[in-house]
Protein 1
Amino acid sequence: MAEHTPTHPVGGTPPGFLEPLELLYEEAGQPRFRLPPALATAYGGDLGFTLPCVYANFVASIDGVVALGPEYPSSGSAISGRKSADRFVMGLLRACADAVLIGAGTLRATPRHRWTPDHVCPQAAPDFAELRRSLRRAAEPELVVVTASGDVPTEHPALQSGALVASTVDGARRLDGRLPAACTVLTAGEGSALRMADVLAALHAHGHTAVLTEGGPRLIGHLLGEGLLDELFLTTSPVLAGRTDTSRPGLIAGLALLPNRPAWTDLISARRQDSYLFLRYRLRTPHAHDGLQAAP
Ligand SMILES: NC(=O)c1ccc[n+]([C@@H]2O[C@H](COP(=O)([O-])OP(=O)(O)OC[C@H]3O[C@@H](n4cnc5c(N)ncnc54)[C@H](OP(=O)(O)O)[C@@H]3O)[C@@H](O)[C@H]2O)c1
């Protein structure tokens, strides 16, 4: 459980000459992890979570595109323009997490990525390490990959350095003997999709209570469909992506919410750097009887 303390002025030099984010709004009474001063300066204040928590982090264009389509690998970087402030926030959110949860589509689309704080913001590595020590987290968050098919690129550097691969019985059979020795397979159900509640229960049993998901859109659809997402961090990148007839999904794929199942949110905080917005939302809990939420 995070401590609740009043906001206080932050000190410290931001790592690697990162320009601090400007805090535009923050709801009172937020949990605070007491970030190392350099991180608090760069983030424009403290950050924390009430645990257990499942929080997502995405970057989207102004017109709501999060992926440019299968022919463009690593499209998140294209959408963010590799903005250093976005990479810092990505690193900071990873540094707070016990586990980073992704779908196999994101793994396949991002061939050289590693889902660690240092990979996206190496200049803050010592400060991320200090934060993880203070939170009594392992040196790095555990990568968790969800796949029904078991069709994952076993040569991927993120798998080579060790991950938990959650799959169905059929998928686990397909993975048998193919994964690097550093990986563990979690068999969490039959059929074409795993119940994400089962996956999260297994993660909690491993002691993982701060779970960051970096998507992609289909995994977010499954998490929202089961009412399991607590918070969303969304970077709005000041770019228009556009669409022709190719698939360019928004944040959620495979699940329709409006008009019958609206997922209303509350804004927790808003930060800015240049023309980028860094928004943090809390998902409201649906009414148990019908999955509907009251409008704001
Ligand atoms: N802008 C951003 O911030 C951002 C963030 C993340 C990803 N992306 C982009 O999104 C694109 C990928 O989109 P996507 O929707 O395909 O990604 P995804 O959600 O990461 O992957 C979908 C795949 O994950 C597995 N999966 C998801 N939920 C599952 C469940 N409940 N049970 C079993 N398996 C499950 C399935 O794998 P199998 O097919 O193996 O069964 C499914 O086909 C990429 O272009 C990526 O770059 C953008």
Note: Residues 264 and 294 are 8 Å apart (CA to CA).
Protein 2
Amino acid sequence: MELAKPGGEGTGATPALVWLWQDLRLTDQPALAAAAASGRPLVVAFVLDDSAPGAWALGGASRWWLHGSLDALRRDLAARGAALILRRGNLRHEILRLAAESGAGEIHCGEPLEPWLRGITDGLASELGALGVVLHRHNTRLLFDPTMLRTQAGGAFGVFTPFSRACHAIGVADAPIAAPTRLCGAKPLASDDLADWGLRPEQPDWAGGLRETWQPGEAGATLRLGEFLAGALAVYDRARDIPGHASTSMLSPHLHWGEISPRRVWLAAARAAPVGGKSPLGFLNELLWREFSAYLLWHHPHLPERPLRTEFAAMPWRNDPAGLVAWQRGETGIPIVDAGMRQLWRCGWMHNRVRMITASFLVKHLLIPWQQGEAWFWDTLVDADLAANAANWQWVAGSGADAAPYFRIFNPVLQGRKFDPDGAYVRRFVPELAQLPAAFLHAPWEAPLAMLKAAGVALGATYPTPIVDLASGRARALAAFRNLPRPTA
Ligand SMILES: Cc1cc2nc3c(=O)[nH]c(=O)nc-3n(C[C@H](O)[C@H](O)[C@H](O)COP(=O)(O)OP(=O)(O)OC[C@H]3O[C@@H](n4cnc5c(N)ncnc54)[C@H](O)[C@@H]3O)c2cc1C
């Protein structure tokens, strides 16, 4: 498909500016497609503003990913005739400056979801409008516009099941927009050098596991989708909770950075129809959890900071820096928790089941505020997403919309035995326990001394003893919960 009309540099047409954020792709990119269809030469830009008030500055793993994603996009755009202009600084100033430098006649961007970005974008729309430049906002990140989905009474959904029913009822009909084969780039503007942004670590280089695991960029996303459709999708419903098997799509960072559109993933999975011709509902519903998270953030802008259920503000959280550090380092003495936290540190990603187990252990057994876990995930996940991270932490903590009840406390030993029965996951990430038989792997303190010795395990020396007694931690959490004030209606 040829989206760009002839013209461009030297034709006299004023350019269209495409301002990118978490929509770093060419395929099914409505902002890029609309700008290209305008027939104007294109200026494509990405602005990094870490210091905007209220913005969550990108964590280390996100920065690593962003470098790769921008690098890939720069090459993809160049191959089609357009440059990627990089600017770092105050977002509002930089967009106004780009508009002025390019003489843009119109601007296209994705509809912002983050509360801080919504504020800046609203302000820019007015300022640019006063200058006669229209800012067009396109839905580049979601399947469903959060303002369109309402309960029958006209309110916002607070429960996933009716929300997902409403989504299924609307359906995902439109075919993805093909990537342009050629773009008409405007006269290039000055751009920062990506290497100068210092997004990737130098010394110490902690990113070896990230490099082994991921290929940021649209081509990497397409590859990952193809592998998933050809393999794990067929067994997704029964295997997705087993962290020792590659049973989920691992598309989350690609979806987060918009290297692949959720519509493309949805339609490809729906058409793959792997299980006896049935729609892969389990997987499609996970995509709807992503939508639900964004929807909650849209309707509750304080979601990343404050509990949705206000009574949780009175929770007697503990200040436990040593417990927090043990959890972050994967040295709690609870094998499934430690395996998850080490997977996170090494790969920048953790299996969903283990995210739930590690999060529950932090907020319940250790009674550490969910915001501290959220902050660590934010820094270390390559898919760190303001909406999904906050919504899921609140879900686990019991303070969110449609949350797991607080009194339902995961027992990490039973969870480990159920979902990692052969211990493949723990053995991979906690190698010092690898020689233990599966029956004792998830609770090494129950193993006879001779067995520990034969496996080379000395509790308290080669592997920690548990930092909390699981039964007492559970009782303490339940007592704290029972003392909360009654929910306000
Ligand atoms: C405490 C906690 C924090 C989390 N933080 C994040 C985060 O920062 N970013 C993030 O993308 N996901 C987060 N999740 C959700 C989920 O764990 C990941 O999306 C999932 O593990 C990604 O792996 P996958 O791509 O293989 O998922 P798949 O099982 O293949 O699912 C497909 C896609 O659906 C979406 N999805 C799946 N589960 C969820 C969910 N529970 N909530 C929202 N979207 C979902 C993701 O975009 C995912 O890529 C968190 C979960 C928990 C319990």
Note: Residues 326 and 332 are 5 Å apart (CA to CA).
Protein 3
Amino acid sequence: MLIKNAKLVDRKEELDILIKDGRFTSIEKNIDKENEMDIIDAKGCIVTPTFVNPHMHLDKVYTAVGGRESKVETLEESIEIMHDLKREYTVENVKRRALRAIKDCVSFGTTKIRTSVDIDNIIDLIGLKGVLAAKEECKEICDIQIIAFPQEGIFTNKGTEELLWEAMEAGADVIGGMPAAEWTDEYSKKHVNLVFEIAKSYDVDIDMHIDQTKDIFARSLEYTAMRTLEENYHGRVTGGHCTSISYQNDAHAKKVMELLKLVDFNVCTNPQVLAIMGIDSEPRTRGVTRIREMVEMGINVATAQDTICDGFHIFGTGDPLDYGLLCAYISQYNTPASVKIIFNMITKNAAKILSVDDKYGIEVGNKADLNIIDAPNIQEAFRLRADRKYVIKNGKIIVENKSTTKFNK
Ligand SMILES: [Zn+2]
């Protein structure tokens, strides 16, 4: 396949991209067509790597379609309503909803997703089995990593410890955690310790929901980072949300961020959770971490579509240009230069969380995964939430949109 007149993010001139056997083989000006080669004229549109969503809940998606009657306004109420929804899960309905979400994400140019799947005594391994089935069915269009996630806590939810080990045996790729779900700080630490024990026995990455409230005394982030240092797990641990640090004093937060940097810790912020941070007085809780400070310190920060239409959050499209734009607003990135920071958060920073960064991106030798977006640059792509004209994975067209009209050179 040959893609003509592609505008790459870091290049001024338009280039041609040659793809053979599913990999980029040449990226230059004016590559000549070879016999029987498919040609796509990008017409000066921006061509990006495909997007990566590093934090999602494919077992929960679309459980709130149809406006189920509930008055969910706080995080605690959301967890309660999710318990009710979870009791209705079957392998088949989890698979069906997960498939729908994966296909929606792919239509927006995402070809890699890391998803948590609840493991607890309410749902046992039903969610995991459903998402594993969806993963298998979608393997040509999207790479899925599954996190075994103790949403209800481990020691607060009898049986979860054993179920986590079973989930790893059953095919989970990553071990998750939710230390704040434990009743005491002591048990939150025990929770983190067990997560490291499981991670080391299976040699897998760790991806936990950490300090996702505005509790100024929450300390699981620094404890997890310290355990990362002790276990020499540098670069393999990700904290989702890490919100509490935004409410802690600057001196303390700075020290924690220095430790995060030291252990090459990944942070994933999910700006749409501001919808569920609680009904509090003004100024309202935003529900994100110290995004700008972390970025300035060189900590790997990504952003994600945490949920789509479930008991926690009734909106969400799965479009990285959607939640990326919200992340830009919430962190007040409003210059052409800072658009690149947000763009990195939905592409290479997210890919680093999934440990695929060395093969990721539009470079000769890498897997040929790319999006052709109907915009002249990434700023316009975000502003318009521009259509994806083509999504290409492993050198094959998996999405084609013929009706794009916004950007015509
Ligand atoms: Zn989450």
Note: Residues 55, 57, 116, 209, 240, 306 surround zinc ion (CB under 6 Å).
Protein 4
Amino acid sequence: MRVTLLGTGSSTGTPQLLCDCPVCHSADPRNRRTRFAILLETAQTTLLIDTPFEIRLQLLVAGIQRLDALWLTHTHSDHFAGIDDLRIFSFRNKAPIPLYALPSVIDTARDRFKYLFDENEYSDISFLDPRPVTGDGPVTCGDLTLTPLYHRHGQSAMASFRTGKFAFIADISEITDREIEKLRDLDTLVISCTVKHDHYKHMKLDDILVLIGRIAPCRAILTHMNHRFDHEELLRTLPAGVEPGYDGMVIEL
Ligand SMILES: [Zn+2]
Ligand SMILES: [Zn+2]
Ligand SMILES: [Zn+2]
């Protein structure tokens, strides 16, 4: 399986508009971060996680030729506002794109992009085919078997997942011991690490590192970083086994 971090920025992206900080003015291309999206590819299946504002540009850069399904973690705009761009894949597939998400996330997505869920003027099929994610049973998506992971992100309920020895955890403020138990024996964990200081919607860096220590994957990669995180500084200061991601990073598993 190949994992591509399409976007590794927080909601405002890096550089952030109107900001004079050193990271926003850095010449290091790894400090230029578009919004959160991850692509999983196997021989048979291409699965996208989230559709941020830049999804079209991210998929062009990745050279993607097919898309089989979308997993949507939640409906904050930085993960969701680009969903209209997936229409092109339903045209190509001549079928709706399966959309895996929590029932509440599907409801909100339908409220905000109703035309993607209905028959429409272009075709008698819809663009998206909602598949509610509930319970602990694995979700089969092509040749991928996904184990849902439930956690909190401030007021928002979140669904991330594990597949094989890989897992990702999107924006997080809390996770129960029960869900952490699903993450034993991981090779690679990709996890949102948004802020350095206390934030009501996000665990700060120190708490993310404690959580990574409890999960104990062979390799942990940080994503969803805000503009206070300098890539080089993270490489120097993070503990062994933890590293910052960057846009376009490819992980082979
Ligand atoms: Zn986010
Ligand atoms: Zn800045
Ligand atoms: Zn969010």
Note: The chain has a mean pLDDT of 97.
